[in-house]
Amino acid sequence: MTDARNAQDARSTQRTEVARGARDGDGTRVVRAGLPAEEPYAPPMPGPVLAAHYHLPGDPAHAPYTYGRDNNPTWTALERAISELEAPGDETARTTVFASGMAAISAVLLSRAKPGDVVVLPSDGYNLLVPTRERLEGWGVEVRTAPTGGDAQLDALDGASLLWLETPSNPGLDVCDIRRLADAAHERGALVAVDNTLATPLGQRPLELGADYSVASGTKALTGHGDVLLGYVTCRSEELAAPVRSWRKTVGAIPGPLESWLAHRSLATLELRTARQAANAIAVAEALRGRGEVSDVRHPGLPDDPAHGTAARQMRRFGCVVSFTLPDKEFAERFLAALRLVGDATSFGGVRSTAERRGRWGGDDVPEGFVRLSVGVEDAADLVADLHAALDTALDAALDATGGRDRPGARNG
Ligand SMILES: *Cc1c(COP(=O)(O)O)cnc(C)c1O
C-alpha cells in the first residue's frame, strides 16, 4: 500500500471515529453507527451479503467468516451499530443479533439458567415470558416473579443467579429503578438483564445503569417500519457474549441478511422517529386525559404519571406507547374500528400509528377496555382529531344502546 493511501486511510478512519465519538449527539451518531470507514468509490453502506458459506482455505480457527449460521458481515455491521448506541464509547460491549426479540430473550435465559438456579422475572412483562417460565421450570430452574412497579423484584433476589427486568413494562408501562435493582442483584452474585424494547437505546442505556445485558426486540421502535422481525443482546463483555453467540449458532436463531440490512438502514432515522413519536405521544396522552370516558391514561413522560419520577432519572426519551382504559370491550372495539389514521394491529413503535385492545390475546392482566396505543410520526393535530372523532363515534353508539341516558355533558370533561 502506498504512503498516500495509508495517509488517506488514516484520515478517513479518523473522520469516522470522530463522527462516532460518544460525545456527539444521538442524531449525529445514528446516521453513521456501524458504518465502515469512508473509502473512495465504495458505497457509504455496503449492501446485504447473501452467503450460506464463504471461501475458506485451510484452518478455520481464526477465519472471520466461515458458514452462514455462524457469522455474516451484514450482521457484524449491525451489531457494531447497536453496540455504539447501547454503550457509546464502551469498547468491551458486544452485540449479537437474532431472528426475533424472543430468540434474543430465550438465548440469554435458556443459555444461562441451569437446573437448581433461581431466575427472577417480572410478573407483568411481555406475555411470552409465561411460556418461557414454564420451559425453565420444566428444566428444574426455580422461577420467581414480582411486579415491575415499586421495584418489587428486590424482595425476590436472595439466592438468584439472574434477574430479568422489563422497563418500561409492556403493556402496563410501569418502570423500575435499574441502578437500584442491579446493585442489589450484583451484591448477591446475580447477573442482570433488561428488556430495552420499549425505550430503544436512545431512550435508555441499561449497561450504563449497571445491567449486564440489554436485550430487545428490534421488530418494534428500533427499526420502526413494521417490515422486519429482529432481536439483539448487547452484553457488557466478550465473556458474557460468547455463550449467547454459541446459543445462536446451536439453535440457528439467525436473522436473514436482508432483514439485518434493513434494520441497519432504518437506524439512521431512529433519532428523528423517536423524537417525533415521543412528542406526539405526549400530545395524544394529554388529549385522551381530557375525555371523561377515558381512564388510567399512562405514559412515562407525563409529569404526574406514577412512573415518571424513576423514568426521568434513567430515561432520555419516554417512548411512543400510551395506554388507557375505555369503559368496556364493546366501547373499545367501536373506538378502534372508527379510527381513520390508527390501524388496529399488535406490535408497536412503527412510523404508522397502531392500537389494539390488549385483552383480545388473553395473556395480559388488563381490563377488557384496555387499549395499547403506539403513536407514529403523523402530524400530532391529525392524530388528536382522529382520536376525538373515534371516541365520539364510540360514545354515540354507547348512548344509543342505553337510550341516550347520560347524554348531556357526557362528551365533555
Ligand atoms: C415484542 C416484544 C418482545 C418480542 O419480540 P419479537 O421480535 O416479537 O420476538 C419482547 N419484549 C417486549 C417488551 C416486546 O414488546
Automatic annotation (TrEMBL):
Q: What are the GO cellular component annotations?
A: cytoplasm
Q: Which family does it belong to?
A: Belongs to the trans-sulfuration enzymes family.
N6-(pyridoxal phosphate)lysine modified-residue sites:
K220
- Annotated coiled-coil positions are none
Q: Which SUPFAM superfamilies match?
A: PLP-dependent transferases (SSF53383)
User: What name goes with this protein?
Assistant: Cystathionine gamma-lyase
Cofactor(s) recorded for this entry are: pyridoxal 5'-phosphate
Q: Does the keyword Lyase apply?
A: yes
